[in-house]
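User:
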Amino acid sequence: MKLSAKELEQRLRNYRRMKPIIAIKEFLVIAVACAPFAIVVNRILLPHAIVGGGLAGFCEILYFASHGVLPIWATNLMINLGLLLAAWKIIGWKFCLRTLYGVLCLTIWFKVIPIPNLPAITDPFMAVILGGLFSGVGLGYVLLNNGSTGGTDITAVILSKFGHLPIGRAMLFCNVLIISSAYFLPEVRSLEKVLFGLCYTFMSSTAVDWVMGRVRQSVQFFIFSSHYEEIKNAIITQIPRGVTILNGEGGYTGRDMKVITVIARKNESTRIFRLVRAIDPDAFVSETQTMGVFGRGFDSIKEK
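Assistant: Predicted structure:
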């Protein structure tokens, strides 16, 4: 039975009502996920005089160079505001808005978390390993919810967008120069501490890629529904993703039917399920993971 235009609009209206709730959830996750990064910087890296890279690492350099006169929360906020103004047109206002929110959340965490005289983890090697994993997972969840903490994240997202690099790897490239320059600080002047900083950044970037790998995975949908026309149009306009309509035949009934096939990112699968359920709760949906999806909207075609 074909849906009327009024019924379809009502179902799509119900689907759109869920978007503000999802956005609120994402903003809450971003606020909480910024905390691990600030904890690691203030309670592990600074007491050990280890520069961890990124804009936070650059702010650490300013902190040590000024003997604590320039607090990390203030320099982090001011530099990020300048980067956001410069990247407004390149990345888009939606990403910049969420980045500004992430920057403010991180600034608040930097401000409220005290910097102790003794580090939370006394062994420096364990500190960089656990600190890198802890902060990387937090940053990964920030990015997973379409947010950012600013700084080199902005540069990394641009490189990932145009160069198809994993975000964690792009961040790693951006951070090496900052960490190496910390060697010239009197508080750091040690090859061992520079290596600790590189180790911390590697662990953090690996954790980011591990979390973000859930986003970069692709999935393939086969959707069987008598309302295939409405679902097709909704996926194209609401997700948006391209779809292919296949001609099928029921093995038991022998009736002709249309099958919708969609390839999307893993993080889009929940939205597709919600959309299909909103239009046809009785639809039959099959989802499978795919590997090596290349082309428009995915990774560029490359040789193995």
